[in-house]
Hints:
Elements: E1 4-8, E2 11-14, E3 18-25, E4 33-49, E5 52-66, E6 72-86, E7 96-108, E8 114-127, E9 130-134, E10 142-155, E11 159-168, E12 173-191, E13 194-209, E14 214-228, E15 237-251, E16 258-284, E17 288-298, E18 301-316, E19 322-341, E20 344-359, E21 364-377, E22 385-386, E23 390-400, E24 406-420, E25 423-435, E26 443-447, H1 454-461, H2 465-471, E27 484-488
Amino acid sequence: MTEIKKVNSNSKQTLDKCVFSENAELNLEAGTEVISVNAESNIASCEALDKELRVGVCTVFRVIYKDAEGKLDVKEVRTDAMKIIQNPDINPTTEAVLDATAKNSQYLATATGKATANVEISGWFVKENVLSFMSSDVENVYCRTETFSVENPVLLKGGSLTVTNSDEARMPVKKVLESRAAAVINNVYPSDGTYRIEGELTLRIAAVADNDQFINQSFTHPFGTEISDESVKSDSVLDAEAKAVSCDVTVTENDARIFISDVKINFRVCSVQKSEIEGVTDCYSVTNEIAVTSENAKMDSYFCYRTVRDKSSCSVIPGGMINELCCVLNPTVTEVTVASEEKGLTVQGVIGADLLYIDEDNVCKSFKAEIPFATDFAKDYPCDGYDEPSVTVTNLSCRLRTGSEIEITAEFALTLRGVSEKTVTMISTVETGAEKEADDYAISLYIVRPGETLWDVAKALNTDEDTLLKLNEDLKIPLTGGEKILVYKELTFPV
């Protein structure tokens, strides 16, 4: 009796990017001078419905400005948006991994002030795919079976962690202009029923000191957390991502040099469940006609080209002479591409940043700088495609090279993930029909084409492999193409 087996063979599917314009009314008082505007977006919610995702996005605009008295100040305005991403493979049980990134933030000089930015939603989801296949022989039917390695990505429940640290600034802090946090995972340790994530948290602050000088500092702290999940085993293969989704900084009352940071980190963890299956990929009958039901099965293999640390520098000339450097803010990664060559892979992109400086007239100005980067990876795996690389900026710094030229350096962590794609045809059912009519050839000659196997020849000649080997004793296996194979059979004629 034919045995039908089922196995999950889900796959990661990249979503089409959703880009929209977000605007915020700043409601600034008359007489204020805007120095810089930047924006930061995060995913607030995600609901899966039939053929669509409803995604809530929170964007925080941060404007640095001079008030009527000429003092620097900061104002934040939050906006919320709901967007729909359509995809025919999405259903109410779909699990998605999404990111929101704000780019090209600008200030529009209106009566009360207006900020605008382009927000991009990107990500992927787990496409459900149940593979049905026949794993046993059928009477009077020759079946060819193959063994396949199936990888089934499953999103775990993940979790979050709030990290609290105390750091000391170079000078007493009067006003924090910007605080940004970045989280990078170094290791994931699975065990039965739980897994541990360890990584590194980088905190950057830009501030004005009590003597009106500018502070631009970075601090690094390790973090670790343990998350329970019954599906995790000690030999599980886990791929984890971390993102700092909020960063609150408070200057202590007793000592303005000391500030407390509370950073919330969200974790997204994917487990790749592996299994070996043996399924029927081809069949034929010598005696009967057969009807075959088959399906194409997509069996993707996922792997990580690991995370590397790198840095890139460039020089910019804002124009005119520069009296003092203030700080560099608002890192944004754009234009990321992967180039494949024989020697390996190169990930290229651009990191944008806002540079604040004092010009020769003692006027505080901002300049949008672009820092190109190119990071090489060893090509360790045969790969058919790549997820969009994950680039996390961990530090920004700047220095004055000449009276008009500034060098900006960005440090970042880059993770590249690849996929090897394979599609096979597997048979799920075979039905035996009427008997075949016998042909009237006593001798059949077959010339093997390149790439054909003995199975292919037996199927074409309506016989079996053992018979071919008995009738062609000098035949060498495997076949290479060009061999002449003969089949003899007795014919009976009416007298």
